[in-house]
Structures are given as structure tokens and as C-alpha cells.
Amino acid sequence: MNQKAVAVIGAGPAGLFAAKMLAENNVDVFLFNRDIHPGGLAEYGIYPEKYRLKAGLRKQFMSILAHEKIHYFGNIEVGEGKDLSLRQLQELNFSGILVTAGAQKIKRLGIEGETLPRVYHAWEIVSNYNSLPPYAQMEFPIGRKVVIIGVGNVMADLARYLITRGGVDEVLAVARRGPAEIKFHETEFAHIAQNLDHDDFESEMERVTPLMQKLGQDPNETWAFIEKACENCDDTSSKTNFRLRFLKSPIHFNGDEEKGLQSVEFVENTLVKDNHSTTSVATALKTIFEADTAILAVGSSVDGEIGLPVRRFEFAISPYPDFPQDGNSYEILDPDTGKNIPGIFVAGWSRLASYGLVGISGKDGTRGARALLDYLQIHGEEIESEKLIKAVRDIKHTVIDKDMISKLLQIEEQNAKHLGQPEFKFKSNVEMLSALGIV
Ligand SMILES: Cc1cc2nc3c(=O)[nH]c(=O)nc-3n(C[C@H](O)[C@H](O)[C@H](O)COP(=O)(O)OP(=O)(O)OC[C@H]3O[C@@H](n4cnc5c(N)ncnc54)[C@H](O)[C@@H]3O)c2cc1C
Fold it and tell me: How far apart are CA 185 and CA 152, in angstroms?
């Protein structure tokens, strides 16, 4: 029977909630996912020890996948020169396409020395400790003095990892702006608060307080925030010293290929008011911190290789959507024609890179699906799903479907029980495929 059928690229929270919305509106959903496991960063980003949160989300995602109108194709990467290109998807005559592939590429800042040994991007370390293939099997040596650039929740996760893994003496987190602009949440900071060097924090607060007061910011609010996190902090036995520095942007990673990173040079910033926000402005002053490891935790970029136009680190979202949802655009502007690309929509972190937690990304996926449904009211041919399924399987044979995912989850749960661990994850695709008896 012919029906409207759409391709959703990426099975993270945005793609899964979009698939649910589309399927509930009688559309056949072909959900393509690069990873074998669905879940995206809910599986491979959220801190490993948040077992209950992750297990709850996994259950929710599996119940979405169970919908008969959702067809899951894991282990399929979409993009130029990948398993399946955007053009091939268009040639298969899908009624519409929704890109929910997250923002899973490294955001290179172009700072001198950024590719030195032991200068990493958060994505690499997070993917490694969360067992995402192929990062799970790669080596990321970490020294004793680590500088993290950025002060969001990802910084808090990284600091937590460095504090608890052992072997790290110092972690210094450096912010471009001031204490009033920190982005991490109290609950995440509570995991690292016990290791905060209080004397050092006090003197850093003393240094930045005059500027805060000049801008009408209240340093007591920062103190109250830190003290509350400290009251609820984790009881770690780790001796790692954790410090925070404000008003600095990295300008140079010093070192060489042989010795790797030796220090990080920063320019000192001041802040100016910009409507309801503040903007950092570089001064002539510079500071150098000795460090043998640096991690850039400044967000990530969308993947231009998917085949959509990119502006800096984000897809070129159209400011003039034909199918807006709650005032937001889910469409892409083609820079060559100056028009919206017909039939292609984006949602989740692919729409707003590195923005929001799972709940926000899921809601954005639902809204992106609504935009696509509005489009389908007017456009999009009906096609036979069975033919489409066969065509996709002819392109790649090691496709993972939802029954295989259920089986894989069962095997991983059994392995965890057998090893007496709260969780078990295979570290490579080959291990997953061989556990499923495919290779
Ligand atoms: C380190 C870290 C910790 C976090 N911790 C929390 C937390 O504790 N709580 C919380 O609520 N939120 C947390 N988040 C945020 C949350 O993970 C995101 O909000 C959410 O996962 C984004 O969803 P998404 O679907 O847009 O993208 P993603 O989750 O990134 O999913 C993208 C999906 O697309 C697939 N994909 C990528 N490229 C392709 C391609 N070319 N072809 C096919 N498929 C592709 C990937 O395999 C992936 O499955 C954290 C994020 C990070 C980075």
C-alpha cells in the first residue's frame, strides 16, 4: 500500500521524538542512525554513572521504536561518500527528510597549537569514557595538570571524570566571561565541588568583584550558588585540586610534537553590557598557565559532510521558514538559490548546536516533525514502504533493525550481570555485530 514515507537522519532524542510524532500521524518513518545503538548523546554523552537516567531513557526510546510505522536502520551513516548520501535518499523518493544528526563534529577554533599532542576536544574524551566506537578504543593520554576551556555542564562532567579517574593533580577550568555567566548547573557542580580550592576561589572572586559590581552583577549570588553546591557535594576521596579562572580566552597552545602541550596562553578579557547580556572584550594583558593537557569544552559543530550548507558551526537555518513552528525555523536556506531547500527539515542539536538537555532536544524533534507534517499536507509523493526497505537493504547489508537492538541490549544486560557491573557496553561495532552473530 502506498503511504507517505519520510527519512529521519539520526536516532538521538530529537530523531526519536520526531519519529514518534510522525508515526502517530500515519507516516512511515525510516530512521537512519550512524551508531548501532539508538539514543545519540543520551547514550554516549550523559555521564556514565547516571545509570538510572540512562536506563530510563533507553526504555523510553525502545518503546518509541516499537511503533509499527517506525523502521530502524542502525549502522548507516548518511553523507557524501558515506553509506548513503542525501542525494540517494532524495532519489528514493522519500516524501520528506528530517535531519536530526546532532552536532557531532569537533569545533576547531583555529588556535595555534590546537592539534598538539594532549590538546583535545571534549567530544573525544566524552566519547572515549562513554564507550562510543571508534573513540572507545582510541588512546587519549592525560597528564597531571589539565586545563579545561569552557565552563558549562560538559566542563563539569569532564572535571568529574578527571577528579575520579585518578592520576590528575590539578584541573583548572577557564571561562571567557565572569562568574555571573557560568553555564553549569548546581547539580552537576555538586559532583566536583568538594575538590574546589576554596582559598583560590576566594582570591579569584576578589579579583573579579569590582568588574561585576560595575556591571550591576551581584557576587553574593555566585557565592550562594557555590555554597549550595558544596552542601550537596559528592564525598570523593580524590585529592585533585580544582580551580576556576574567569575572563580569559585561549590564544596559543605552547609545546611541540615531541613533548606535546607545555602551557596555554590566554588573553585577559573585560566585559561590556550588551542589552540583557554581556560580551567579552580582549585587553592587551596575557596570562600563561602551565599544563600538560588541555580540553576544549566549547560546544561542537554540525557535520557539513551530511550535504547541507553550513555557516560556521551550524547548518544554514532559513530566517524565512515556510512552515514555522512556535516562531522557529526548521528549514535550510540554499545559499545558491536564496530559497529554502524544499522537503528537508532539521531539528535538535542539528538545528541549534549544543543547545539544551535531552528534554529540550526531544521537544525540538517533535516541533521539527510538525513542520514536516505541515509540508506533507501540501507536498510529498506516496510510496510503497516495502520497496523502500528493500532498496535500503540493497545498499548496505549490515543494517541493524530494532529486533537486533532489543537482542543487543539483552546481551549487554546479561554481560553486566555476569561481571557484577551496573552497566556493560561493547567498545566496537565489530564486537556488537559479532555478539549478534552477524560477523
Ligand atoms: C557531555 C554531555 C553530557 C550531557 N549530559 C546530559 C545530561 O546529563 N542530561 C540531559 O538531559 N542531557 C545531557 N546532555 C545533552 C543531550 O545529550 C542532548 O540534549 C541530546 O542528546 C541532543 O539530541 P539530538 O538528538 O539533537 O542529537 P544527538 O543526541 O547528538 O543524536 C544524534 C544522532 O545522530 C546520529 N548521527 C550523527 N551523524 C549521522 C549521520 N551522518 N548519519 C546518520 N546518523 C547520524 C548519531 O549516531 C546519533 O544517534 C549532554 C550532552 C553532552 C555533550
Answer: 8
80 and 189 share one domain: no
| Nearest CA among 247, 182, 184 for reference residue 211 | 247
Q: Is 16 in the pocket of ligand 1 (CB under 6 A)?
A: no
The residue whose CB lies within 8 Å of the most ligand 1 atoms, and thus the one to mutate among 21, 30, 41, 72, is 41
Residues 305 and 288 in one domain: no
The number of the ligand 1 atom at minimal distance from the alpha carbon of 347 is 26
| CATH number assigned to the domain comprising residue 217 | 3.50.50.60
Ligand 1 center to residue 68 CA distance, Å? Answer: 24
- pLDDT per residue over 243-271, tens digit each? 999 999 999 999 999 999 999 999 999 99
Q: Could you write out the DSSP letters of every residue in 144-211? A: SEEEEE--SHHHHHHHHHHHHHS---EEEEE-SS-GGG----HHHHTTTGGGB-HHHHHHHHHHHHHH
Place of cell 528534554: 359
For 163, the domain range is 119-296
* pLDDT given at position 217: 95
Quick check: CB of 75 below 6 Å from ligand 1?
Answer: no
Q: Is residue 214 part of a domain?
A: yes
- Rounded to 5 degrees, φ, ψ at 186 are -60, -40
Q: Per the structure, how many domains does the chain have?
A: 2
* Nearest atom, ligand 1, residue 154 CA: 1
Examine the domain organization and report whether 326 and 218 are in the same domain.
no
Residue 284: pLDDT over 80: yes
110, part of any domain: no
Q: Identify which of 61, 358, 399 to mutate to test ligand 1's pocket (most ligand atoms within 8 A of the CB).
A: 358
Query: In terms of domains, do 74 and 127 share one?
Result: no
pLDDT of 388 reads 86
Residues for the chain: how many in total? 439
3-state class (DSSP) for residue 393: helix
109 within some domain = no
Give the number of the atom of ligand 1 that is nearest the alpha carbon of residue 364: 26
Q: Which atom of ligand 1 is nearest to the CA of 101?
A: 34
Out of 272, 296, 320, a domain closes at: 296
Rounded Cα gap, residues 397 and 167, in angstroms = 44
**pTM, full prediction:** 0.95
Q: Is the CB of 308 under 6 A from ligand 1?
A: no
- Residue 1 Cα, ligand 1 centroid: separation in angstroms? 34
